[in-house]
Amino acid sequence: MGAVVSCIQGIFQAIGACLMGIVNAIGAIIMFIVDGIIAIFDIVIGCLTCQGCRGRGMRRRRHGTTSRV
Questions:
Q1: Domain annotation covers residue 40
Q2: Is residue 35 a part of any domain in this protein?
Q3: What is the DSSP code (8-state) at residue 68?
Q4: Is residue 68 part of a domain?
């Protein structure tokens, strides 16, 4: 009798693990979609607020040079 209960318990644990894997995969997909939408809005807002569409590499800080006379 104990073997039957153990077998049924193992089946339910496997089903639970499978369902949790599906839920985690759906959550990861939703996070990737939301992150992509946020990145698009970041680019659009950056262009509209005159930060330019030059890309992140062009925003480097320039070091001032002093000239001696």
A1: yes
A2: yes
A3: -
A4: no
Residue that is written with structure tokens 């894997």 in the block: 21
Task: Give the pLDDT of residue 16.
Answer: 95
Instruction: List the domain range (segments joined by +) for residue 46.
Output: 23-51
The total domain count for the chain is 1
Q: How many residues in total does the chain contain?
A: 69
Distance CA 9, CA 15 (A): 10
pLDDT tens digits, residue range 4-40? 888 999 999 999 999 999 999 999 999 999 999 999 9
| pLDDT for 1 | 72
